[in-house]
Amino acid sequence: MKKQGHREITWEVNEKGCHICTSHKPGSHGYPQIEINNKKRTINRVAFEKAYGPIPEKLQVCHTCDNRMCINPEHLFLGTINDNMKDMCKKGRHISGEEWGQGRRGEKNGRAKLTPKDITYIKFNTNGISQGNIAKMFNISPSQVQRIRSEKQWKHIKRVL
User: Fold this and answer.
1) Is the domain of 26 the same as that of 84?
2) 35 lies in which domain range?
3) What does the alpha-carbon distance between residue 32 and residue 20 come to, in Å, rounded to a whole number?
């Protein structure tokens, strides 16, 4: 798949048959994006349109595989926002009422870089090490280290004695 005047879209096939986009980075919502005519578009929508034609207004491109980086047209289907929410709940990917106000915490957050083991180390074993050095160790920002140490984030990880 190639768009004229744009970098070629490339992918690798994983064990589930997903075509994982390797040529473009994900945007803020986790889907790989491409710029076409000065407008950012998700590559899964571009792939769907190339395979099946235009996407009707108010419909979303959903994934049977639940992998946002997948651009395999065979894993894509159209649905309303409501259809997408029902699919998410059916597959157990929804946020429960208890979690709703907090979002997905810690390792349940799909964008988390750290594990509970990393957090335990940062919180309880880094006295005397600067936030900058800790940040470099874990490839995070110094301000993230400060939020972890002050328990503004990852506060559910407690010291086990």
Assistant:
1) yes
2) 11-90
3) 9
